[in-house]
Amino acid sequence: MSRPLLEVTGVGKSFPGVRALHDMRLDLRSGEVLALVGENGAGKSTLMKLLSGIHSADSGEFRLRGEPLSVSNPRQALELGISIIHQEFNLVPHLTVAQNIFIGREPRRWRLLLDERRLNTEAGQLLERLRLPLDPKAAVGSLTVANQQMTEIAKALAHDPVVLIMDEPTAALNDAEVETLHGLIRRFVGDGTGAIYISHRMEEIRRIADRVTVIRDGEYMDTLRVSSASTDRIISLMVGRAIDTSAQPANVRADRDVVLEARGLRTTLLTDVGFDLRHGEILGFAGLMGAGRTEVGRALVGADPLTSGSIVLHGEPVRIPNPAVAARHGIGYLSEDRKRFGLLLEQDVKANITLACLRERFATAGFVNDGAARAKAQEYLGTLRIKTPSLDQITKHLSGGNQQKVVIAKWLAKDCDILIFDEPTRGIDVGAKEEIYQLLNELAGRGKSIIMISSELPEILRMAHRVVVMSEGRVTRILSNNEATQENIMHYATLRPDRNAEDAAELGISDVHTGHSRKAGQP
Amino acid sequence: MTAVKTAGESGFAGVVKSRLQQLLAFASLIVIYAFFSFASPFFFTYGNFTAILFSAVVIGTLAIGTTFVIIAGGIDLSIGTGMALCAVMSGVFLVKLGLPLAVGVPAAILFGGLIGLINGINVALLKIPPFIATLAMMLVAEGLALVLSDSTPIYFNDVEGYVEISTGNLISGVNFPNAVLVLLVVALIAGGLLTKSVLGRYTYSIGSNEEATALSGINVRKWKIAIYAFAGLFIGLAGVMISARLGSAQPATGMGYELQAIAAVVIGGTSLSGGKGSIVGTLIGALIISVLNNGLQIMSIPQEWQNVILGCVILVAVYTDRIRKKEA
Fold this sequence. Notes:
The structure holds 2 protein chains of 2 kinds. By secondary structure, chain A is an alpha/beta fold. Chain A has a 6-stranded mixed sheet, with helices on both faces. Chain A has a 6-stranded mixed sheet with strand order 18-21-22-15-23-24, with helices on both faces. In chain A, a hairpin with a 6-residue loop joins strand 13 (258-266) and strand 14. The longest helix of chain A is centred in the last third of the chain and has 16 residues, at 430-445. Chain B starts with 10 loop residues before the first helix and ends with a helix. Chains A and B meet through helix 10, helix 11, strand 20 and helix 15 of A and helix 9 and helix 10 of B.
């Protein structure tokens, strides 16, 4: 066997109080895509940070093409041929695609002046070579999330790297875009180059990777050939136990009372959205990025203003101008971006759980009754199985799954009957996902009505009693549990009535504005 | 990690860690105090001790109100000139209109609340960034103070009992100025409100994550206005305290106090990005500034150099806080 392109042996790294990596191993061969999988906190990000020189290892060795490799800062990593695409974008929204691609090494004239023309030409050539349909002069902030991701990738490849490392590169991409990305990776990988692909999505790993290295709790588990390893085997290596992946929605019944009716909702991004939500039901919302699913959630709680349409709650029409009113009506919204919209990361668990209900439940004459608040929060630690050393733990130190449970506890404490989950398991590892699913089923079983917005079809199929499929800001179909199949959902999710007359006809829509362009939905 | 990254701090070590910035600030206060005590024979006396506390009153009062605003993720630049305006208003109420003390003083304090209320409305409803909204208010207050007083000081000579609000001794026989008692009482009240009241909790919540707080069903706009208005009461109180101490309302003396007060808040460990801070820290910060001002004066260091040193102290204080956070 030939010498590996990149070799990691016996690498250890500790932070105060945490052993992030211990005796880590990994080898990337020339011409291959190596998938790296592990639960959140397994040590993937730490390994990336060591490779990009953000941290330095306590022990162990890195070799690139057999030569010892020591990286002390990200710039040096790039010069040595290691390009890393982090999960969070490192783009400057106000600069153009070209400016972002060449940031820090812009072509100059007379050493001082920027050569904007050469910058744009070179970026244009690069994009053409990569077959990316991006305008070098477009401001990155105006691009869709998917195109921003592509810009990030072009930026990484502009350095002509030997090793390309990608951390969850497809989190914001739909299937077609994932395919574009995979094409790029396949063209990049060749003699003398290789890619490391970090992902949670097993189907993608199956499509793109040759081998998969599994790590757990900062330790190397095993490296398997993707073609011969079953998904269950990989997952059980990751989480240390077997997980049932064939579960079905629970308690599906058609005879439930309607709790909430949405009629003809319109916002700047939604057109005539209507559906019913029933008592004790999990209503799935499926669709591609930018289909308007998140916007439905935001419109229901008054976070985005309705231009027309009505919401009927328990038979009474209600007006919901802002989230405070929604909360008073018992509607809670759990954002896909928990850290930004859901949690007070720097505050303790107790403060987060009691945030929404503080005033009506735990305050007398403007003062907080701490004992009662603490007791109630403690109760939720038990019922929701939140793993935290104490109520006083700062929330950012919890894992993604436990953070999500803290947000759920917040809304349960507020006595919400309707819970809107936007991507309930985003950024949550496989083991904890299953627990969130159980929790959702329990909540529905107790009579809570749940709207579950998800980009993961398996999740929709596994959980939803009925599925609302959306495309371009419209509801294209509401499928019952029996009708909901992967193919069916994808069919209705990809109808584009605004651009395609046939699709419009299929949906019975006549008032279509042709040539109407839409921005992708904001996260 | 599936479960939890760091173990929860408990017991003494936990208290030390969570209060480290305050303990550090307190330790530096002791060190600075000890330094001046050795450096000058005139520093370590009871008279000078009360003088330091006395001078901490105005900065401390302003800083306590500002602590709320800064923890909520805002800033208030209008507190210095706002204080001068409230002092002038106190003169208008008590001297020009001849209102009784029991009406005029609360009215002056409420006028501070009004300044804060307007700041709050500008920030929360009109969505003007706090820096700009309160910068504008700083100029408005400065101008109004001069206009309302015809640019001349208003003397409280004929208002019986006014000066005693600051310089009198409520505890008879002990030389402990009322002003210091006032500061301690308001600090206790503010500390209680910050840690125990709904207003205090929402102050932290809004500063930690305004959007998440709003999506949790809390009327953030209303609470932000309340926070600024509440902090405004301290502007009014500071106006009363400074004019009582001087025996006159000086319309042009406010400028510069806002920076000293903000410095006190920051030295006390409150994060300018919001979500963190305490009244105890702010009090220590105000004392550090007063001790420095007083000590440097006693050592006959020129005013210009005093500012240089104060600037450096702020940098060191914030830098140690950053280092500590990086290590944690």
